[in-house]
Write a structure and sequence with these properties.
Layout: E1 3-7, E2 10-12, E3 18-25, E4 34-39, E5 45-51, E6 58-60, E7 68-73, E8 78-83, E9 92-99, E10 111-114, E11 118-122
Parallel strand pairs: 2-11
Antiparallel strand pairs: 1-3, 3-8, 4-5, 4-9, 5-6, 7-8, 9-10, 9-11
């Protein structure tokens, strides 16, 4: 069955960096767009970044643009999120998500499989 497993979260100081990974199985990774989303304490799900199936284009929420970078290695079935210049407001549970098609989008209903989430806490 489809599995998405996130790793790399933890505690970082403001201004610091973390790199999240999402290893997938159970489907042909290179055929589907992927995204990262997050849920901060007491808030709803926020789309963070998306990448087309072949890595040809990437998209970001305004809140992370210029600080976060999404990438993928189709040979390793792995999605990444490099997070730099972290802020306390980046504290959240981060999820990777598999799209229904090859094209990334910020629309939640266009994703059909989600990881269990990984906690990122930014605090001094």
């Amino acid at each position: 069955q489809v599995q998405l497993v996130e790793s790399g979260g933890g505690l970082a100081q403001p201004g610091g960096s973390l790199r999240l990974s999402c290893v997938v199985s159970g489907f042909t990774f290179s055929n589907f767009a992927m995204s990262w989303a997050r849920r901060a304490p007491g808030k709803g799900l926020e789309w963070v970044a998306g990448i087309h199936h072949d890595g040809s284009d990437t998209f970001y929420a305004d809140s992370v643009k210029g600080r976060f970078t999404i990438s993928r290695d189709n040979a390793k079935n792995t999605l990444y999120l490099q997070m730099n210049s972290l802020k306390p407001e980046d504290t959240a549970l981060y999820f990777c998500a598999k799209a229904r098609t090859t094209i990334a989008t910020k629309l939640q209903y266009r994703y059909d499989n989600w990881g269990q989430g990984i906690q990122v806490t930014v605090s001094s």
